[in-house]
Amino acid sequence: MYKIDRFVLRSFLRPFLITFFVMVFFLLMQFVWKYVNELVGRGIEWYYIAELLFYTSATVVPLALPLAVLLSSLMVMGSLGENNELAALKSSGISLLRVLRPLMVFVGLLSVGAFFFANNVIPVANFESESLLDNIRNAKPALSIQPGVFFTGIEGYAIKVDEKYGPNQSKLRKVLIYDHSRQGGNTKVVVADSGKMRITEDQRFLNITLYNGHLYEEQRPQKREARDNHPLVRSDFQRNLMRFDLSAFNDRDLDAKSRKEHDMLNVRQLTQTADSLRKVFSDRREEFTGQMKKRYQFERPKVDQRDSLPPLKDSILANLSLPVRRRVIQNALRLARSTKAYYSNAATEYTWRSQIITRHLLEWQRKFSMSFAVIVLFFIGAPLGAIIRKGGMGLPVVVSVIIFILYHVSNFSFEKLGRYEIWDPFPAMWTANLILLPIGIWLTYKATTDSTLFNVDTYLRPFRKIWSIFAGLKARSVRESAAPRQ
C-alpha cells in the first residue's frame, strides 16, 4: 500500500509544482504589465525592482495555490484514468478514496500551511511591496509627470502637460503650472506653449524651461476695500526658467516603511484593530448623541405664580413682537442648517468608519476561507479527473480554468457585497466555498460509484424512453385508422 501512496503522491507533486510556479509567474506578469510604466526608465537600481517582484510574488500565492491544486489533481486523476491505472487499482480492491488518501493528507497539510503563510508572510509582503512601490513612484518625480494628468508630487505645485516627446521624454508641449507655494492659496498660474525638462547633475533641482507663455498672478492689496476688485497682473515671456527643489525626493530611502492597511495585518492584529475601531466608533456615536441633545434641550422657565401673565395665543410666534419674531426665525433657520450639516458630516463619518471595520473583518475571514478553498477545489478536481479520464494539458486545463473563473468571480462578487455592508463578513467570504463544497462531495460520490456522469447516452436515455412511448402510441393510432371497418 505504501508503494501506491508514494506512486500517487509522486505523480501529483510534479504537475503541482509546475502549475503552481506557472500560475505565480502569470499573476506576477499581470502586476508587471500594470506598473511597467512606473518601473522602467526611472533609473532605479535593479535589485530594488527584484525585491519588489519578490514581495509581489508572495502576495499572489493565495490565488495561485487553489488553481494549482485544482489543475494538478484533475490532470493526475485524469491521467490515471486514461491509462487504465485507476481501473487496475479498483479491480485490485482498492477504492478511489483509498487512492486519494495520500493526496488528501497532503492537501490538508497544504491548507494549514497556506493559512500560516497568509497569516504571517503575506501581511509583511504586502507592507513591504506597497512601501517599496510608493517610494519607487516618487523616486524620480520628473519622470512621474504623465501627459494629461496633474502631477502634485512636488509640494506647492501642480503641473500638467499635454504631450511629452523627444529624447528621454524631456520636451513638453502645452504646459500648465499652478503655483500655490506662497501664502494665500493658488494665486499664480503659468501657461506656456512648450518647454523642456532637465535635472541638475547633483539631482537636487528640476529645471523646466518654458517658451512662449504667459504668467498670471493675483495681487493682494493692502487696503481691504481694494481686495474686492481682485487685481490681476499678466506678463508675457518668450523664455522662462522655473526651478523645483527635489531634495525631499533625493533624501528618500527606498527601503523606508510607510503605512499599514488591513491587508498588512495578521489575525491577531486584525482582531485588536477591529476592537479598537469599534470602541472609537461607539465613542463617536455617544458624542454625537450628546451634541444633538444639547442642541435641542429645552428647560421649563421658572415663573413666579404671583406674576400676572397675559393669556398666550395659539401660535408661539404670535406672542412675540415683529423684530423678535424675525430674530427667532433667523436663529431657528441657522440652527437647522447647522444641525443638518453636522448630521450629514456625522453620517458620512459613520459610514466610513463602519466600512473600515468591515474591511478588517473581511480580511480576517479571508485568512481562513482562502485556505479552505484549497481543500474544496481539490475535492472538485480529483473526482472530476477520475470521471473525465483525460490527462495532459488539454481538457483538464480548460475545465480547471472555467471552474476557477467561476469560483473567483463568485467569490469577488460576494466579497463586494460584504464591502458595501449588504452582507455580513462571514457569508460574504464563505459563500463561494459553501456553494462548491456540496458539488465536490457530489462529484466524489459519483466518482466512487463509477457513475457515467459525462456519458451523453445516460442523459438521453429518459428522453428516448419517452420518445418510444409517443412513437408507439402514434403507430397504434395509425394501425387502428388503417384497419378495415366492419
What does this protein look like?
This protein is α+β, with helices and mostly antiparallel strands and 486 residues long. The protein has a domain at 141-250. It contains 14 helices and 5 strands. The chain has a 5-stranded antiparallel β-sheet, with no helix packed on it. Helix 10 packs antiparallel against helix 11. The relative contact order is 0.10.
What is this entry, summarized?
The chain has 486 residues and is α+β, with helices and mostly antiparallel strands. The chain is built from 14 helices and 5 strands.
Instruction: Classify the secondary structure makeup into a structural class.
Output: alpha+beta
Could you tell me the number of beta strands?
5
- Rough outline: extended
Q: Which percent bin holds the helix content? A: 55-70%
Mean pLDDT: 80
Describe the secondary structure blueprint for this structure:
Layout (H helix, E strand, L loop, with lengths): L1 H33 L1 H4 L6 H14 L1 H22 L2 H7 L4 H42 L3 H4 L12 E9 L5 E9 L8 E12 L5 E14 L5 H4 L4 E14 L1 H4 L16 H29 L26 H67 L6 H25 L5 H24 L7 H27 L4
Antiparallel strand pairs: 1-2, 2-3, 3-4, 4-5
Helix pairs in contact: 1-4, 1-6, 3-6, 4-11, 4-12, 6-11, 10-11, 11-12, 11-13, 12-13
What are the main properties of this structure?
5-stranded antiparallel sheet; alpha+beta; 486 residues; 12% strand
